[in-house]
């Protein structure tokens, strides 16, 4: 076929695919709130003034958070072991007493936000910092301590150097509308090697995920404490070599790891590799990962939950199911392996991985 | 080159009708560019709406000398942003992709050409073909939008056509 004909066919084919979205677009423009479509100079000026005012407010807030004496005696807010936190590993660790009290409170006068750093706990790969913040005046519905894709960052200070700690998955977030209170279980790379030492952390910036994209409240919260052994859980690792085939792809279980926060099943496979497009490597879902996520249910109140009625990837330990931890299902890791995350289990000798109808005895 | 703004549009009979005309005139360029980057019809439709809302808001206080080029540039940036956000959900291009979607094709050759175009060419090649042959931009303009040397754009364009032609043999 000649080039001209190819382009003509392509042009025609594209022309026929274009959806007519005018009505929807028209409605959205109406909803923008200025139906007249004529913007007077005065109005534009007012908007600029408002934006400047907002910028000033944010700049001012960066200095407004100040520590106040902690009055709450609880080690951690009970909300973190409730059904609203979608990390069964965290809940299990808290119930079993893992964790070190931080109990530090900051108050921002400008926004009337009180931030309470509850406690910290970790294994050798992941740390969890439990934080709540609340307000009587500011609606906190869109406020997040978002390490995953927001402006928020967790930083470790050693000497004069500051290093940003990597997030592990999404962490858990819950907004209690009645109390106008947010609970965040921040998840980031472990600092367990500092056990017994003074640790200096800096949590920076609140993220606001609004309708017009994300913005930030600039702030710095320093957290200084001596990392005690009560905060750190150990890890047991067992090498495994179990091969299985699922949807024409071959997978190999390489390792099983047990900690008080999680059970990891490390897998390699023929489709666990980056997708190369235009010279750029992108991480893509393997069939196993899609199967793992298939049983994921999103609940407005409870976050990610498990739908055991659906086909998925489950871990059975001595007859009991360990819940998949979906908040870490898309955590960054080596590109040639995938980690299936489950809740911690007690019987580490008797584990069966269920992939759809397949059953693979791991130990 | 004519300039477009909503200040200018308001002098016409109905500014919304004028804006609708911009939508009709250029929707293909926006949709084709978004589809070239995202290879997903639903997402391309979302981009189509998002970009026109951006245009509407931009025109309230700015003038655009070349609406088509503005739309293509903004569509490209918006679609690439979305692609980066969605990359975790991409499973790569599947053979069954077309079977899952409802297509309006009277001519089976059109379906083959479009499917081969989406399957065989890489993202950069697809964008160049759209900008050159569908939107009618000059190679020089494309080079500017793609932030590539003119020679690279010309070479990629030729390679893309060659690849597509070979795939259709």
From TrEMBL, chain A:
Transmembrane stretches, start-end: 49-68
Name listed for the protein in its UniProt record: DUF4179 domain-containing protein
Pfam families, per database record: DUF4179
Source organism per UniProt: Neobacillus novalis
Highest taxon, organism lineage: Bacteria
Family annotation (InterPro entries): DUF4179
Keywords of the record: Membrane, Transmembrane, Transmembrane helix
Domain DUF4179: 42-135
Automatic annotation (TrEMBL), chain B:
Key word Cytoplasm present: no
Gene Ontology MF, one: sigma factor activity
Key words of the record: Sigma factor, Transcription, Transcription regulation
Cross-referenced InterPro entries: RNA_pol_sigma-70-like (IPR039425), RNA_pol_sigma-70_dom (IPR014284), RNA_pol_sigma70_r2 (IPR007627), RNA_pol_sigma70_r4_t2 (IPR013249), RNA_pol_sigma_r2 (IPR013325), RNA_pol_sigma_r3/r4-like (IPR013324), WH-like_DNA-bd_sf (IPR036388)
Domain RNA polymerase sigma factor 70 region 4 type as annotated: residue spans: 114-164
Record domain RNA polymerase sigma-70 region: where: 22-88
Family matches, as Gene3D superfamilies: 1.10.1740.10, Winged helix-like DNA-binding domain superfamily/Winged helix DNA-binding domain (1.10.10.10)
Record GO biological process: DNA-templated transcription initiation
Pfam families (UniProt xref): Sigma70_r2, Sigma70_r4_2
Superkingdom of this protein's organism: Bacteria
Sequence similarity: Belongs to the sigma-70 factor family. ECF subfamily.
Name of the protein in its database record: RNA polymerase sigma factor
Organism: Neobacillus novalis
């Amino acid at each position: 076929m000649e080039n001209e004909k190819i382009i003509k066919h392509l042009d025609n084919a594209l022309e026929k695919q274009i959806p007519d979205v005018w009505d929807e677009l028209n409605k959205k423009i109406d909803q923008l709130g200025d139906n007249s479509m004529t913007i007077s100079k005065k109005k534009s000026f007012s908007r600029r003034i408002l934006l400047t005012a907002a910028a000033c407010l944010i700049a001012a807030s960066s200095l407004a958070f100040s520590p106040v004496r902690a009055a709450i005696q609880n080690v951690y807010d009970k909300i973190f072991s409730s059904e609203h936190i979608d990390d069964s590993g965290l809940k299990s660790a808290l119930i079993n007493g893992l964790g070190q009290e931080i109990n530090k409170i900051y108050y921002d006068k400008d926004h009337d936000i009180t931030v309470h750093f509850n406690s910290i706990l970790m294994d050798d790969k992941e740390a969890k910092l439990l934080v709540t913040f609340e307000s009587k005046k500011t609606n906190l519905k869109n406020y997040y301590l978002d390490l995953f894709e927001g402006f928020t960052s967790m930083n470790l200070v050693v000497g004069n150097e500051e290093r940003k700690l990597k997030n592990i998955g999404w962490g858990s977030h819950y907004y209690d509308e009645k109390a106008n209170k947010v609970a965040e279980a921040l998840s980031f790379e472990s600092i367990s090697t500092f056990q017994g030492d003074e640790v200096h952390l800096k949590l920076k910036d609140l993220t606001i995920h609004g309708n017009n994209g994300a913005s930030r409240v600039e702030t710095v919260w320093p957290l200084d404490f001596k990392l005690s052994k009560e905060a750190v859980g150990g890890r047991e690792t067992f090498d495994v070599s179990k091969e299985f085939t699922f949807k024409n792809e071959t997978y190999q279980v390489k390792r099983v790891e047990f900690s008080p926060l999680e059970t990891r099943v490390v897998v390699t496979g023929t489709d666990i590799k980056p997708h190369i497009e235009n010279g750029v490597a992108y991480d893509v879902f393997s069939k196993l990962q899609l199967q793992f996520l298939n049983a994921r249910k999103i609940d407005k109140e409870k976050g990610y939950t498990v739908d055991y009625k659906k086909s998925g990837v489950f871990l059975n330990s001595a007859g009991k199911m360990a819940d998949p931890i979906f908040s870490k299902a898309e955590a960054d890791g080596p590109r040639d392996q995938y980690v299936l995350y489950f809740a911690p289990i007690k019987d580490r000798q008797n584990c069966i991985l269920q992939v759809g109808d397949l059953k693979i005895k791991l130990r | 080159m004519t300039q477009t703004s909503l200040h200018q549009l308001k002098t016409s009979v109905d500014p919304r009708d004028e804006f609708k005309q911009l939508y009709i005139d250029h929707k293909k360029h926006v949709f084709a560019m978004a589809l070239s980057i995202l290879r997903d019809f639903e997402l391309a439709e979302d981009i189509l709406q998002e970009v026109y809302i951006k245009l509407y808001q931009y025109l309230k206080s700015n003038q655009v000398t070349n609406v088509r080029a503005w739309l293509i540039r903004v569509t490209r940036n918006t679609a690439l942003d979305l692609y980066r956000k969605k990359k975790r959900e991409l499973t790569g291009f599947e053979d069954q992709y077309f079977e899952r979607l409802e297509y309006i094709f009277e001519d089976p050759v059109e379906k083959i050409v479009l499917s081969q175009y989406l399957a065989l060419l890489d993202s950069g090649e697809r964008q160049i073909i759209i900008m050159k042959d569908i939107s009618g931009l000059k190679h020089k303009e494309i080079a500017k939008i793609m932030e590539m040397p003119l020679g690279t754009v010309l070479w990629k364009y030729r390679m893309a056509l060659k690849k597509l032609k070979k795939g259709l043999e």
